[in-house]
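Quick one before lunch.
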Amino acid sequence: MKPNGGYIQYIINPKSGSSSNKQLVSQFRDYLKERSFRVRIDLTQSLEHARELATRAAEDPECMLVLGAGGDGTIREVVQGMEGRKTPLLVVPSGTENLLGNELGFDVNVKTIIRAFEGDCVRALDLGRANGRCFTSICGFGFDGTVVKIVNEKRKGHINHMDYFWPLWQTFWGHRFPRFEVQADGEEIFSGHGMVFVGNISRYAIGLQLLHYADFGDGLLDLCIYRCRGRIHLLKHSAMTMLKHHANRNDVIYRKCKSIRVSSPSRWVNTEIDGDPGPTLPIEIEVVPQAVQVLVPPNAKPAGIRTRFLRMLS
Ligand SMILES: [Mg+2]
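Model of the magnesium ion complex:
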């Protein structure tokens, strides 16, 4: 990109992230200013506002790049606002959890952002839509829906990783695995007790490679269903997932598809979409292929459990 090619629109969620995250945003701004790039900065007041800003920028022929700085929630709204436009998006991860940023190969180092900016490596990013609500990462039905529900009931403002500990513990001991019926591309593929995950990225929280084969730009969603009725079985599934051996097991169904329907005879099933409480079942999910163009660091890979853990320690 050249400084005379137009302006760069910053869309920043001022509430998300720590001070080191905020530093990342300003470091990159300094880099752009030193190279005489024109930068416009807008702070988001709400998620809807983030989406509006993104649409306005993407529709402006003078805007050569949209830069979204925030957590997964902010980035999702920005992506949604830019759907179908050619203007590329640069994601600057600065929330508690940046599942999408991590999947695209970003970390919290300004050098990685500069590498993406200078590398001109543009890739298509699909979106998912669940009962009309967009998501960029992963939806979960059952166990993790309950964890997210408890976290949200207890939250007072900004959440960090430790806020998940007690809800996880509580859910682990109290959860009853509901019965699900799942259709993929119109075909009945599962009826039984367990957990269902649908997503567009391979790694879930803490870098867990849940949707092992997911590719964020292949025009398909990945579906992973764990047959499960109790705690021991859940622990076995967790261990196999950490070892990345779960996808080919007999008690796991793994598919790639364009549309998914999840329903349940139980009324108490909790759902989550991108880490927020989701709608009640039944849920119809479809893929929005190649919704936006994203700049990614060339040859970068998402960080797994070990890398993420080491980063957390440092
Ligand atoms: Mg995909």
